[in-house]
Amino acid sequence: MDPITDVREISRIAYGFMASKALFAALNLDLFSRLAGKQSDLEDLSAETGVAANRLESLLTACVSLGLLSKFGGLYANSPAVERYLVRGVPAYFGDYYRFQIDRQVYPYLERLDAALEGEEVKGLYNEEFRDGQAAEAFIVGQHSGSLGPASMLARSVDLAGRTSLLDVGGGSGAFAIAFCRQNPELRAAVLDFPNVIELARRFTSEEGLAECISFIAGNALEAAWPEGQDVVLMSYLLSAVREGDIGKLIEKSWHALEPGGLLIVHDFMVNQQKTGPTLAALWCLPMLLGNPAAVAITPELMIGLLKERGFVELTAREMIPDITSLVLATRP
Cα(first)–Cα(last) distance of the chain, in Å? Predict the structure, then answer.
């Protein structure tokens, strides 16, 4: 992005959190689902949501100004993107990811960013201590909602034909294991993550009818024993969240878990080699610092260098989710 030259651009950054909160508030009121496929006026929406008309009108005005809603005369309607992604029940529904993970976990968590920059390890979002009770469930529900789309993209873009075993390290809700097993019916997957996460992931895989295809290993990825003889090892959103020195340890564990000819898949938030962007990937590096002050902004070039040094071959890298994540593939010879 070009350097900004206008104070109004600074203000847009400074006030950006207000737009986020408007979006989250609308989602929490189920406002977009109430407008699905139709137009409604302020009076009807006030009655449906139970929010006084004067207060609701302020929120509606903010949503129109942000392009989330359109207004025709006195009638409100969803924008095309909202209709596609933020209406409950549509195939690409993304709202719970924003509601549960971004609004309720990441947003308040980032209030401690100053402490993290001073080197303090902030307990919470990416620590094992967080994986407990209702907070853990809210986190994993949000993560699952946000991961289903990227997981499906990844499963379609990586050819696993002929491969029968996959180890998903730090697999969270199991969304990526689910997507790969759907795409490759002969595949059997194991998800390794913290015990409280595993309990919730079992529920998701059972709901998808894949309980017989996906097994679970409870533990810390850095400490637990990884099963050997794997055709594929997947690490998604993991290496950006660990200490810089632990990246090599996880690569080493991947090497020993893979069969010769096995495939390592690394999918994560990655910035460019110049460390100038892209913006969304760069921003996602910030919450990683709170749980691990020694975390680093990783790049495809860094990953390829580390993997090559360990002995991996057939190294390739490409963008996965535009402006957010990248994909690195490597083979154990």
Answer: 40
